[in-house]
């Protein structure tokens, strides 16, 4: 039904965010999104962050974002290599000091650096 889909899709500006409800590690989540013709959800402003947070809350699962740590420890960038234009780190994050290369979103919409081999909700953007 349309309602069932509604919970899984959010629009923000030109972007659409969707989840298949599956949990995967960072590499697998990215691959699923790319196979579907998109990429991992990558919030570039407050509106996009909120759209992703709505999906994260719907499933009550943390989700990986399309952001990774650069060669420089403590510096993060979009998976495209572009520098971050927007951040919403949780208080005292990022704190992995090079050991946590990926970024997850908490159910309150804030971000935390995390190891890439955890299983997190797959949220894609199109």
Automatic annotation (TrEMBL):
<dbReference type="GO" id="GO:0005615">
    <property type="term" value="C:extracellular space"/>
</dbReference>
<dbReference type="InterPro" id="IPR016186">
    <property type="entry name" value="C-type_lectin-like/link_sf"/>
</dbReference>
<dbReference type="Pfam" id="PF00059">
    <property type="entry name" value="Lectin_C"/>
</dbReference>
<keyword id="KW-0430">Lectin</keyword>
<dbReference type="InterPro" id="IPR016187">
    <property type="entry name" value="CTDL_fold"/>
</dbReference>
<dbReference type="InterPro" id="IPR051663">
    <property type="entry name" value="CLec_Tetranectin-domain"/>
</dbReference>
<dbReference type="InterPro" id="IPR018378">
    <property type="entry name" value="C-type_lectin_CS"/>
</dbReference>
<dbReference type="GO" id="GO:0001503">
    <property type="term" value="P:ossification"/>
</dbReference>
<keyword id="KW-0964">Secreted</keyword>
<keyword id="KW-0732">Signal</keyword>
<dbReference type="GO" id="GO:0008083">
    <property type="term" value="F:growth factor activity"/>
</dbReference>
<keyword id="KW-1015">Disulfide bond</keyword>
<dbReference type="InterPro" id="IPR001304">
    <property type="entry name" value="C-type_lectin-like"/>
</dbReference>
<protein>
    <submittedName>
        <fullName>SFTPA protein</fullName>
    </submittedName>
</protein>
<dbReference type="GO" id="GO:0030246">
    <property type="term" value="F:carbohydrate binding"/>
</dbReference>
<feature type="domain" description="C-type lectin">
    <location>
        <begin position="17"/>
        <end position="125"/>
    </location>
</feature>
């Amino acid at each position: 039904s349309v309602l069932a889909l509604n919970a899984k899709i959010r629009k923000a500006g030109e972007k659409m965010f969707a989840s298949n409800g599956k949990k995967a590690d960072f590499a697998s989540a990215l691959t699923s999104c790319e196979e579907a013709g998109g990429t991992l959800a990558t919030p570039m402003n407050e509106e996009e962050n909120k759209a992703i947070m709505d999906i994260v809350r719907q499933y009550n699962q943390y989700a990986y974002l399309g952001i990774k740590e650069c060669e420089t420890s403590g510096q993060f960038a979009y998976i495209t290599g572009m520098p971050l234009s927007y951040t919403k780190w949780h208080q005292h994050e990022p704190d992995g000091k090079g050991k946590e290369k990926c970024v997850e979103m908490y159910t309150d919409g804030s971000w935390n650096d995390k190891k890439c081999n955890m299983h997190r909700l797959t949220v894609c953007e199109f």
